[in-house]
Amino acid sequence: MMVTSNFTTIPIIDVAPLLAKCDDPNGTDDKDLLEVVAMLDEACRGVGFFYLKGHGVPDSLVRDVRDSTRSFFRLQDEEKLKIKLTSKSGFRGYQLIKENITKGLPDLHEAIDLYKEIEPGMYGQLGTTLVGSNQWPENPTRMKSVMEKYVDLLKEVSRKIMRGIALALGGPVDTFEQEQMAGDQFWVMRLIGYPGSNSNSKNTDSVGCGAHTDYGLLTLVNQDESSSALEVKNQNDEWISAVPIPGTFVCNIGDMLQVWSNGEYRSTVHRVIVDSPKYRVSVPFFYEPNFDAAVEPLEFCKSRNGGVARFEKVVYGEHLVRKVLTNFVSYDF
Ligand SMILES: N=C(N)NCCCC[C@H](N)C(=O)O
Ligand SMILES: O=C(O)CCC(=O)C(=O)O
Ligand SMILES: [Fe+2]
Question: What does UniProt give as the signal peptide span (predicted)?
Fold first, then answer.
């Protein structure tokens, strides 16, 4: 298939046939499913981003996730800081505007960081930085139950998309469900609020989140419908806007899938530009490999490239912890 990396649009993929049939032992020959697989292959190869349509997550829940996030960020700082993110909280909790840094510059966003629970001793030394449970606010009271329900549904959608991606890469359907890969997958979720800005130029006052790639397998972004802010970089260094499309998630490939696919699928650089006076809420869910997965190019991907590995082996948890430890102005709190 043609690799078109100077994309100017982001494809929309209706994954309903894949979700319906990917767990059925005979379903993977289905014509509609294979059509989705072909579209995934093209999108992951050429763009690294696509809109996920037909995901089956109820719109009321998708909205509730954004609305409860918005109500929390409307509270006074004093209230929000009751669940402050610290090194002692396993980097879980609330961070103020400009406390998160990307490439050395503070980002114009506030956020709550959530991770799958890690109990003391799990993963040995590797797990210590993120040991803990998530911190939930008193208000809105429904936040915890809304988010936990949402995480459960998004994990299942993501597992099925990864089945489609496994087929798209030419591997067995359950490639990523293997015990040592993402059979006991980790997850991350960020509830993010971007303050409105009057800046209409793309200067440092308008960087909601600096240019970066995501760390794991697959990201599903639930963004406000009314503000366009997420931008994706193509190979000509042009920024393509991922305008919100109601009823869809923006979906993109993370660093670990880039490594497993031996670079056939890229973790594409993206950023968030805040140049509208309107407050924007966005909630990315990150579906990740096992915390302790050792990730290296898959044999069936490498073989298409003369058996040459384009990436070195990386342990996902080490990659994540390295990022977390450099993501904050000061984590000595
Ligand atoms: N868990 C994920 N993928 N989070 C993405 C955050 C990207 C911004 C972060 N400050 C950075 O510099 O990476
Ligand atoms: O705010 C967004 O829409 C995306 C944020 C993002 O790229 C991230 O948190 O990794
Ligand atoms: Fe991102």
Answer: none
Q: Which atom of ligand 2 is nearest to the CA of 271?
A: 7
For the question of an ipTM over 0.90, the answer is yes
Residue spans per domain, the chain = 12-69+114-324
Ligand 1 atom 9: residue of nearest CA: 102
What integer pLDDT is reported at residue 330 of this predicted model?
76
User: How far is the centre of ligand 3, averaged over its atoms, from the C-alpha of 271 (Å)?
Assistant: 7
Taking only the tens place, the pLDDT of each residue in 123-181 is 999 999 999 999 999 999 999 999 999 999 999 999 999 999 999 999 999 999 998 98
DSSP string, 124-153: GGGGGGG-B-----SSSTTHHHHHHHHHHH
Token reading at 23: 């767990």
What separation in angstroms does the CA of 261 have from each of 4, 11, 16, 258, 276?
A: 17, 20, 24, 5, 37
In CATH terms, the superfamily for domain 12-69+114-324 is B-lactam Antibiotic, Isopenicillin N Synthase; Chain (2.60.120.330)
Predicted TM-score (pTM) of this structure: 0.97
Centre of ligand 1 to C-alpha 46, Å, is: 22
Identity at 285, one-letter amino acid code: F
pLDDT of residue 200: 60
Q: How far apart are CA 26 and CA 111, in angstroms?
A: 43
Nearest to 107 by CA among 226, 197, 216, 194: 194
**Is the CB–ligand 2 distance for residue 275 below 6 Å?**
no
The C-alpha R_g of the chain, in whole angstroms, comes to 19
